[in-house]
Write a structure and sequence with these properties.
The protein is an alpha/beta fold and 176 residues long. It has six helices and nine strands. The strands form three sheets. The chain has a five-stranded mixed sheet with strand order 5-4-3-8-9. It has a two-stranded antiparallel ribbon with strand order 1-2. It has a two-stranded antiparallel sheet with strand order 6-7.
Length: 176
């Protein structure tokens, strides 16, 4: 890779990670399709911590591994009463096939048309290639972003940051 290409990629990464919504920001509400005839709204999860996992594409190796990991540790997220939602710009039919292939037990939402509208609200749409960043948001039960992170496209961010953010929310929120 040339030095110029490397600098352009670093610049693009910096631009996109600098536009990501930061902790303390109210999470923009949205409604997206989970199936051809069903929609899911972020507001449905109010009262629970929510993890938004934006990812570039169904069936890509890193995305498949990332979503499979989250599916495997779903009980850990549920220990914090947290909901997990995946979001990408792929269509609902692709999501249904991907979800079935990976036996996923959480909703995968389609930010397909208008393409990337929700990703843009969260500052994680990659206009240069028409997909989302590999980005994570942990939103508290009141709808406020408590943690956000953009991982390099080719790197599975794992779940450690999510779990730390959920722990932090649990410690700081008063018991009901």
């Amino acid at each position: 890779m040339s030095e110029e290409t490397s600098q352009q990629q670093s610049s693009q990464q910096l631009q996109s990670s600098s536009s990501i919504l930061k902790p303390g920001t109210p999470a923009p509400n949205f409604t997206l399709r989970s199936t051809p005839d069903q929609s899911v709204s972020l507001s449905q999860f109010r009262g629970h911590p929510t993890i938004l996992a934006f990812y570039p594409a169904d069936f890509s190796p890193v995305c498949g591994d990332q979503m499979a990991l989250y599916n495997e540790i779903l009980p850990e997220f549920q220990r914090f009463n947290a909901e997990l939602v995946g979001v990408s710009v792929d269509g609902v039919w692709s999501h249904l096939a991907f979800s079935k292939d990976r036996n996923l037990h959480f909703p995968i939402l389609s930010d397909f048309e208008p393409k990337g509208e929700v990703a843009k609200k969260y500052g994680v749409y990659r206009k240069q290639d028409g997909m989302t960043e590999r980005a994570l948001f942990v939103i508290d039960s009141n709808g406020i972003i408590q943690w956000s992170y953009v991982s390099p496209i080719g790197v599975n961010p794992g779940a450690e940051g999510i779990l730390k953010a959920l722990e932090s929310i649990t410690i700081s929120e008063p018991k009901k």
